[in-house]
Amino acid sequence: MSIQKLKHNFRGFKLSGIVNSLEERISYANDNSLSYIEFLELLCEDETNSRRDNSYKKRYHKAKLPAYKNIEDFDFSFQPSIDKKLINDACTCQFIADKKNLIFIGNPGTGKTHLSIAIGIKALMKGHKVLFTSTSEMLRQLHMSKADNSYYNKINEYVSPELLVLDELGFKKLSNYSADDFFEVISKRYEQS
Predict the structure, then answer these.
(1) All structural domains of the chain
(2) Which one of 72, 107, 165, 172 is most buried, counting C-beta atoms within 10 A?
(3) For 154, phi and psi rounded to 5 degrees?
């Protein structure tokens, strides 16, 4: 069987990680006299890594993070009132498993969004589904969804991620209908997680 035929079969089995590394792995196996088992282990490792990377990329895209920020770039000396140990604990994402909330309170420009994004990225790296949105955008989307009867689908978009990051909560006063929508999301998230 030719390499092209093998690649065709692997594509049919949706094994793109193996497809992408097959020729390189065959060459490596020949050069290093690998056993069949060692060769198969390498191919399986390539497939596992490919799937993990693809999963991260898909979840990152769906997270709708406004920028890439990591905790290592946060200047704790700029905000000495922030407890670095608490933030590092949050970066373990144990609060997600414990079904607890994090709330960052402070004036604009104090790093709340940076920290939220950085923790969201840590959660993505640990395999969690994340969604970042401003509170006003979430409420606008929910209000608009009532016009086309997609309200409950839209609610589910905000309820289903393991980590929902609501930015700019409390900056604008909520109208009565917005308060109801906000309550709907929060109460459903508490029911499920």
Answers:
(1) 3-63 (no CATH), 71-192 (3.40.50.300)
(2) 165
(3) -70, -40
